[in-house]
Amino acid sequence: MEFRVRAPELKGRGWLNTGGKALTLADLRGKILLLDFWTFCCINCLHVLDELRPLEEKYGDALVVIGVHSPKFEHERDPVALAAAVERYGVHHPVVDDGDMHVWQQYAAKAWPTLAVVDPEGYLVASMAGEGHAEGLSRLIDELITKHEANGTLHRGDGPYVPPPAPEGLLHFPGKVIELPGGNLLVSDSARHSLVELTPDGETLVRRIGSGVRGEPFSEPQGLVLLPPQVAEVAGYDVVVADTVHHQLRGFNTATGEVTLVAGSGRPWRSAVDDHAHDALAADLSSPWDLAWFDEKVVVAMAGIHQLWWFDPIKRTVGVYAGTTVEALRDGPIPDVWMAQPSGLSVSADQKKLWIADSETSALRYVEDGVMHTAVGQGLFDFGHVDGPATEALFQHPLGVAALADGSVLVADTYNGAVRRFDPAAGEVSTVDSGLAEPSDVLLLADGTVIVVESAAHRLTRLAPGVVKRVDGERHKTERPPSRLAPGAVTLDVIFTPAPGQKLDSQFGSPVRLVVSASPAELLLAGEGTTTELSREIVLNPDVPKGVLQVVAQAATCDVDAEFGACHLTRQDWGVPIVIDPSAPSRLPLILRGMDA
Questions:
Q1: pTM to 2 decimal places
Q2: In Å, what is the CA distance from 247 to each residue of 218, 292, 491, 578?
């Protein structure tokens, strides 16, 4: 007897992109539903938004994508901020505001992003975590269309999406800014997929670089860096642009206006890179978010895989600079550190420190003499707006950073709507401005003026000089429901089923890999490390009441039907909050990919 699970109802605080209508599963009966559990801080969630665009176009009369926004940070619970994010990232499907995580819990989601497929009769047929599922979803949708057309249960036609009004104004969700040698400002106008050169006052358009249409040539560009003149002369361009959604770097010649591709295959990163130099144009990058000239190379904040990379414009090579791809906070020698979505870079005046806004750990970090340190920040789930001693101060998802001549650092504390200052000499954090609309970058101009990219207000703002205040705001922890587990031996199972038309690929050894660690490390008495099995026994410490279990799983598959079948790598990081409870289960299942659930 076939066991089928009814999809839970979509009960949220409100809806976007529906013309004000609240949707129910009954309204959507007869359509294939693809539920995308996301939160707008999450870079992997942004990857999935782009992976879903071709599916929405291909299956538009049979498929309805519903974004389920289940927030991590406090700022993401704000309906106004959510509406801005839906506009910023060009989300062209209905979105339900799951601010209280009700839908998240009903669908047993444990990671951002999670995808769930509901058939035209309202039954849950698939669930999967992470990104890279577009091809498998396409095969599954084809199967569901064939089955339900034959049964008469598929109803083709327009979906419930209602587009918002077209935006106006000079800038639309700008990302980063640099000062050009002549004093003009160059801004990445991210939501208009272009660069904008402005006069020094930041208000008058000099020229726009790019068509303003996604992909021509930019797609949500972010970071910019001006090359040293001697390097620019050889390279043939003087500005490098982080073309974020294209997963590429582009060179821009400010004299001729020419834009050229300089790094990135255009394929999103899927597998680890060794410590050698690689041909820049052949390398797979992952959401480069900011750039800085440091240690005689362009350092790239590779937000999508929680690393820093380097790019050599003369040798035209790239490689890994820092990080292991594990999403967490750990300091030490830079090859082995953990980061979480680094999104802002700035170099100290003496060129000895590279400052980093590590957004998902809400941390300010720096590299000096090959070692990474954390100046402010406590981890993935601790954030807030608290000034004072650096060991106690908190940020909330900062995206930008600017090193000042006196050794202090300004931070665009994005989700707190503030600019903060860290004084290394005093070991103190203060607030220098607040009430800003998602500041995403801070720039110190040659004349000493400070410019803030006020992204959600679509403008550049000059920072009021000399204003410093102390804020004793709230401390927050992510209120994501924890998994309760019994102390002692626990079975960790990562459930993976190849997508339709694929099989596990063993031609290069084991097709699966599982990496487990914990924060604090004392949470795990046994079971830490890397294995080539997706099931493992771990031992939880009864004397550590709670913590976060870090799990990284990947599986390699290949097509079974094609003569020259493509290969695929599915990978997901989980930061699972754990509470020790003697009455709780001794098994933790995580779904990497599940079909026919």
A1: 0.89
A2: 10, 17, 37, 34
Write the CB contacts of 552 (distance below 8 Å, at least 6 apart in sequence).
Answer: 325, 326, 513, 514, 515, 516, 571, 572, 573, 574
Cis peptide preceding 113, ω within 30 of 0: yes
- Candidates 591, 585, 574; CA nearest to 484 is 585
Which H or E run contains 443?
Answer: strand 439-444
Hey, which residues does 495 pair with through a beta bridge?
591
CA distances from 98 to 17, 77, 82, 95 (A): 15, 9, 11, 9
Mean pLDDT estimate for the chain: 92
Query: For residue 265, what are the contacts with CB-CB under 8 A and spacing of at least 6?
Result: 247, 248, 281, 282, 283, 284, 285
Query: How open is the CA angle 149-155-161, to the nearest 5 degrees?
Result: 135
Report residue 90 CA to chain centroid gap.
15
Q: Distance between CA atoms of 185 and 176, rounded to whole angstroms? A: 10
The pLDDT tens digits for 4-50 are 899 999 999 999 999 999 999 999 999 999 999 999 999 999 999 99
Q: Name the maximum alpha-carbon separation found in the chain.
A: 75
